[in-house]
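Q: Here's a chain of 481 amino acids. Please give me its 3D structure as tokens.
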Amino acid sequence: MTRYITCFVVCMFAFCCGLNALAAPFGTIAAPPLSERWFGIYVNSERVGFYRQRIDTSEDGYRMEGYGSVRMKVMTFSKEISMRETYLVSKNLALRSFDIDKTINGSLSHDSGTVSGSALHIKSSVNGKTTAKILKLKGEIYPGSALNMYPLMRSAAAGAVYKVQVFNPEELKIKEIQVTVIGEDRTTDGQPALKLRNNLYPYVTNDVWVDSLGNTLEESVREGLVTTRAEQPKALGTFIGDWALAKKDLIYDFSLVRVQPPLAEPKKLIGLSVEISNWNDALPLLQDGGQQVEKNGNGRVIFKTGSLAQKSKASGSQKPTDAELQPADKIESDAPEIKAQAKDLAEGVKTQEELAKVLASWTSDWLKDTIDDSGSAVQSFASKSGNCQSHARLYTALARAAGIPTRFVSGLVYLEGKGFLYHSWSESFIGDRWIPVDPTYNQLPADPTHLKLLEGHLPEDMAPIITIIGRIKMTVLETKY
């Protein structure tokens, strides 16, 4: 049993994703579907991970890129794996080269390889030690991401059986897999599909449903114990956004934005300018809160924060709305305990800025920092623990109770020695401007590495993270100390 689970975790990447409706009766396809697709991964109906795949054309074939992360526990077996992979394949999907970074139960490795003649030449690096190996080939081999498309690029006739040499990225081995075309069927949610079956995992049934374009819609191991389903990005947005903001291991590497060059002495920064590429131009460019943002061409934006933002041409601060003083879902500024605490902290304080600092400092001290969101402001107040979202909600509730217009925001913040991670904080309107306040790190104003991407605390407010997470890159343009 543990062996097939191990196989699943590795070969979860064997999906040529898809959410399209059937375009035609099942038959031969000339090429794989070119697009980006997302999947949710479940064990006993509990979501345990996700996978994203993108397929594009290359010079003489296709480029298949993917990133996925899974944490599973089944009976006494547990496994954690994250993998970032790139495959270059020929027009018929045969492997030409690969490049893979993977973390399995905390062990990091990098593998690359190239097909040359009748051999696969592999280099593997683990903890700085590099080794090489050569695998002899008995014909063409295929990445797992091509397995479900293989029959449709030949014949989808019911009863057809194919034997395929598949590359295993965990064990760096080649395994012969048998794929059988069962016939037309429907997925568990009723979508018309072509059902395939393979022996990828020993001793158990592995059923796969694909549409007429070659998109995988669903995969089921051992009659639904482990399932993978194609999902709309919006459906995964809340899950991935929450985990990214919590900085949980499941999505940590995927969400980390490495920056070149790394920031020197970030705690001493007073101004920062960075360019973000691969930006989604449909996202709003949020001003105020100590930053200005401007487009720098298609898919590129420039963020200026701190003293550098003050030098740019701002359009003036947006005035607070009534909502930014009112209680809201999970921000219960009218709760008796919240109102009482805000009143107690405000005693003897003369200015709003001084009061905001007192509230932020108290929140930072009151909540023990954890990776899990403790829930609403009232729940966080009671539990005395929570992640950055919990800190931001509690501070926002206290500030509103104290008469300071305050909103919940999310974006990126620099982690020294690592890069930028997704994070939540607050903004309070003091005097004539919005000031960023980070109650997790007890900062007012928050340091210039805080780059605001989203405003609002509701799941739908944070779901747009899905459009850029794992895609954007960042370059430092200017720093000021």
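Q: Can you summarize the key feature?
A: Confidence is low (pLDDT under 50) at residues 1-24.
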